[in-house]
Amino acid sequence: MNQPSGTLYGIGVGPGDPELIPVKSTRILQAVDVVFAAASTKNDYSLAVSIARPYIPEATPIRMLRFPMSTRAEETHGAWRCNAQCILNELDQGKDAAFLTLGDSMTYSTYGYVLRQIGSMRPDAHVVTIPGITSYQAAAAAMNTPLVEGEESMLLVSGAQGGDRLRQFGMKPDTVVFLKAYRNVGDIHAAIEESHAYDRCVGISNCGMPDQHIETDIRQYLDRKPDYWTLIIAKRNRERW
Question: Residues 113, 200: one domain?
Fold first, then answer.
């Protein structure tokens, strides 16, 4: 008789505060046989693991999966396939595994790439994904500011390549959120200014962490580069701030 395959759990650990991890995820972390997390090819550090650590038993092995910070498709796709196979090797032994990711597992997450590979390599693999709180949800809560209300619209974009995604929209949304804003904050600021649509923009760094900082004037970022974990929220109506 074949050994039953294990289950992969995709767990979003939230923006930084361990108390913002879903209760369901904490229960799963206490029961799985192995925990996976993404790491750079340069070091073993994982902020997601640090956040989830209070809920992972000491005896549970934690395995770092290497993902290169590269734009070369051959290199990144090869890493996705290799890491997906590492996870499948554990599932094939009947082990349950968790893959940790910051924020939500399905929002700009490395988990999504691995999940696609697993689905291609093993369509019958049993996968359960638990949603997590995103950084922009936590940022809005930290400012006590609704992201959208009534019939308003919101645009969520990666700011890694600057502000061009906003420029592409003729009809500007009521709220725009730039994640990964640290690298090209100058062009993001320029795109927001060019739109003439937003009354105020706020930058939030390290949201949910002890060193969280809210910058009420993103022009400050033009003189000093923001932290890696920085997002920018722009809204039309000043009265709601």
Answer: no
Query: To which residue do tokens 């949800």 refer?
Result: 137
Confidence of residue 2 (pLDDT cuts 50, 70, 90): low
Number of domains in the chain: 2
Question: Which pLDDT tens digit goes with each residue over 139-193?
Answer: 999 999 999 999 999 999 999 899 999 999 888 999 999 999 988 999 999 999 9
CA distance 212 to 85: 37
Q: Are 215 and 203 in contact (CB under 8 A)?
A: yes
CA distance 218 to 201: 7
The counts of H helices and E strands in the chain are: 7, 10
**Residue type at 103 in one-letter notation:** G
Q: Which of 49, 10, 35 is nearest to 131 (CA)?
A: 10
- CATH number at 71 reads 3.40.1010.10
pTM over 0.85: yes
Are residue 146 and residue 229 in the same domain, yes or no? yes
**Which amino acid does the sequence have at 56?**
I
What is the distance between the alpha carbons of residues 140 and 82, in angstroms, rounded to a whole number? 37
In the sheet with 62-66, reading across from the earlier edge strand, the strands are: 62-66, 34-39, 97-101, 7-12, 126-130
- Tell me, what's the pLDDT at 54? 97
What pLDDT band is residue 1 in, cutting at 50, 70 and 90? very low
